[in-house]
Amino acid sequence: MVFAIASLAQELKASLGILHKQDIQVVSQHFQASTAFPKGDRPSNGAIHLGDDCAAIPDGEGYLLLAAEGMVPFLVQDEPWFAGWCAVMANVSDIYAMGGQPIALVDTLWSQSEQFGQQLWAGIEAAAKTYHVPIVGGHTNCHSPYHALSVAMLGRARSLLSSFNARPGDQLLVAIDFQGNLYGHYPFWNAATDADPDRLNRNLSLLPQLAESGLCDAAKDISMGGILGTLLMLLETSHCGARLHLDRIPIPQGLSLVKWLGCFPSYGFLLSVRPDRVDAVQSMFRDCDLVCEAIGEVCSDQQLILQSQQECIEFWNFQTESLTGFSARSFA
Known about the structure:
The structure is a single chain. This protein is of the alpha+beta class and 332 residues long. It folds into two domains: 2-26 and 162-331, Phosphoribosyl-aminoimidazole Synthetase, Chain A, domain 2; 53-157, CATH 3.30.1330.10. Helices cover 32% and strands 28% of the residues. Strands 9-12-6-13-10-14-15 form a seven-stranded mixed sheet. The protein has a five-stranded mixed sheet with strand order 1-2-5-3-4. Helix 5 (80-97) packs parallel to helix 6. The chain is globular.
């Protein structure tokens, strides 16, 4: 079992999803303390630090949320409609992961022909309709030497869920919609394109409900880094560590653990919850036929430990290695 955990850790640490998160250091290393919001305060106290799922801009009694996503070139080239859908979906997930609701989106679409551009646009339009997000502008070029796509989205939140708010002693919960399937050969669990739009949006609305009720204040959407990459980002910004119990991670039938850990679920969130609120949070998701399980605990050290039965291994140590380079301590 020790060898199995070590092999799993080695494979996941070298995965493209984790490597892409480390690419963020290209940007984070250029930011200084003067570019962040006031030091030392958590977002719940009105100070927002760089490195969350969205830029959160104080706006009266709440926050404007600004998110942006660029699609990987191979997906744009090979699956233009799906790339258009995912560009919208990823932004929607970021907005809801911070306790907000989308307001509007703009797109930047580059293609080598009008015909190809129409396929990208059709995916954007379909997702915007499903998620009830109006398209209000953007940029289009159908005479480009290459295909490319990005989408930016504006949202608003009354109360925030933030990746800076995990605390030692918290329980780590995953909330995922298992009513889906893998999309082709891609590491993408698709519980969205064929889902009932009313059910999809009702399930997403649970996140702002959690924030406004005070049941949870720390969350991230599970992104292309999978559960592990997303957890690392949460721990880095909160300046914490965690013990992740691999045997407790719920897995859709027919998938292996290693394949599932590398998946981007179209509806998937990682929550850091105070122990006395876990039951209430789980009930909210389970009442909507969503999977919600406790898979680990947040610790005061800066290590992510993977455990399976009685065996464990250090997966990451933030004392010696950064992921994105964004954390409250980085700008202190």
